[in-house]
Amino acid sequence: MKRELERSVLIERSIIKKFRKQIWNNFIASVKEYELINANDTIAVCISGGKDSMLLAKCLELLKRHSEVPFDLKYIVMNPGYAKPNLDLIKSNLSTLKIDAEIFESDIFDVAYSAGGSPCYLCARMRRGALYAKAKEIGCNKIALGHHFDDAIETLLMSMTYSSEIKTMLPKLHSTNFEGMELIRPLYMVKEKDIINWSKYNELTFLRCACRFTKDSAEDESLSKRLEIKNLIKYIKEKNPVADDNIFRSMHNVNMATMPGWRDKDNGETHSFLDEY
For the whole model, what pTM was predicted? Predict the structure, then answer.
């Protein structure tokens, strides 16, 4: 027990010491820049079992401990039907990191798989709804997810190349189905490579994909459009090392005067530059 406790302390310290610039400073910058946490918030920290959500849980725990703004945290893990080894790994990591999380059951994997079509799309939507519902049940007004810098820029490029629109994920948004609930992404400015380095430095092994249907096989991963975009960004960075940073900044610097067309987010109406040409 003492050795485990000491290890959890060392893992915590690595966030604010070894990886202060790469992780902690960018985490704090995200929270401040996007005003993600307010006084008296009660935040449900949603832990999937992967590296991102586990790091998020520790960052928020550290922030709560030292913040002058009072807020509360509740850690939740949804079990949508994980295979036993995956669930055991999640529990082991929770113990190692000293995260006191509530694990609640659902049958989302079975429902998504039996519904036909794309189980991944349906699973993602159902998981989000289940997390909101659980968070509201335990008295939270926000849920925190582990999406990071790379998720944001990859989503932007995926939307452009596969959906013919310029769209990405926001650092926070109001729920459309659960009144009074918000979703926040405190790792929005943290790069995935730094999360991976943090995991390796602390000799931590997390789930890469907990879905029992894909089993995280290399074959399934190679079919992912997100992986194609990851490889595209990697290729561009070989020519321009700051390309990812530029893509990220471009999301905050949209020059509407140069856009030939756009859609009004409030009413869905489309507009053309010719309207006022």
Answer: 0.90
Query: Can you read off the two tokens belonging to residue 198?
Result: 């943090």
- Treating both helix axes as pointing N-terminal to C-terminal, what angle do 192-201 and 51-66 enclose, rounded to 10 degrees? 80
Q: How far is CA 46 from the centre of its chain?
A: 9
- Distance between CA 93 and CA 99 in Å, rounded? 8
Measured from the Cβ of residue 57, the count of other Cβ atoms closer than 10 Å reads 24
Element (H, E) at 173: strand 172-174
Spatial CB neighbours of 4, under 8 Å, sequence gap ≥ 6: 95, 96, 98
Domain-by-domain residue ranges, the chain? 2-213
> For residue 74, which phi and psi values (nearest 5 degrees)?
-135, 125
d(CA 4, CA 94): 11
Interval 113-165: pLDDT, tens: 666 555 566 677 778 888 999 999 999 999 999 999 999 999 999 999 999 99
The token pair at 69 is: 């703004």
Asked if 42 and 10 count as a contact pair (C-beta separation under 8 A), the reply is no
CATH number of 2-213: 3.40.50.620
A 10 A CB-CB count for 70 gives 10
